[in-house]
Amino acid sequence: MEQTFFIIKPDGVKRGLVGEVLKRIERRGFKLEKLELRSAVSEALIDQHYQDLVEKSFYPPIRQFMTSGPIIVGIISGPKVIESWRDMMGATRPEEALPGTIRGDFAKAAGENQAIQNVVHGSDSEESAKREIALWFKD
Ligand code: DAT
Ligand code: MG
Q1: Which of 103, 105, 104, 101 is CA-nearest to residue 118?
Q2: Does residue 49 carry a catalytic annotation?
Q3: Distance from residue 3's CA to the centre of ligand 2 (Å)
Q4: Which top-level group of life is the source organism from (predicted)?
């Protein structure tokens, strides 16, 4: 069965959206394979996670945001879960995320020199899912 990796980002945990996100995962019928609260995520781990973005000019606020508080990390499985979870999350930019998606319903635009507060992460391909699962769950 296909698997994907997801994060409830620091904004989601701080705003009390963990239950809301998990409810949507359960309602969709995906199976929770792993679920952990990580309260001290290192900058090094976030840099590895976002290896394709670290060189971008907009990256430093993302590193700062992602290490700003506890996050939830997990693995879910189901048919076409990678694409479905991306659909459920919605578009990266809050103003482009459709109503009914997690980001469309909850994401907040970036303030000056701040990261977009878009509540959730999901792997964008089979290759990313494998890489991210191995990175975050070393066992
Ligand atoms: P996604 O999270 O939808 O997979 P991504 O992997 O391209 O998007 O980027 C990771 C995060 O980085 C994204 O959730 C928000 C931020 N980000 C991406 N592109 C950005 C940009 N052009 N300016 C500011 N922040 C950006
Ligand atoms: Mg991405």
Answers
A1: 103
A2: no
A3: 16
A4: Bacteria
Q: Which domains can be identified in the chain, with CATH numbers?
A: 2-136 (3.30.70.141)
- Report the separation in Å between the CA atom of 30 and the middle of ligand 2, taken as the mean of its atom positions: 20
In order along its 139 residues, the chain shows pLDDT tens digits of 999 999 999 999 999 999 999 999 999 999 999 999 999 999 999 999 999 999 999 999 999 999 999 999 999 999 999 999 999 999 999 999 999 999 999 999 988 889 999 999 999 999 999 999 999 999 7
Question: Which of 49, 67, 92, 93 maximizes ligand 1 atoms within 8 Å of its Cβ, making it the mutation to test the pocket?
Answer: 92
Nearest to 7 by CA among 50, 44, 56: 50
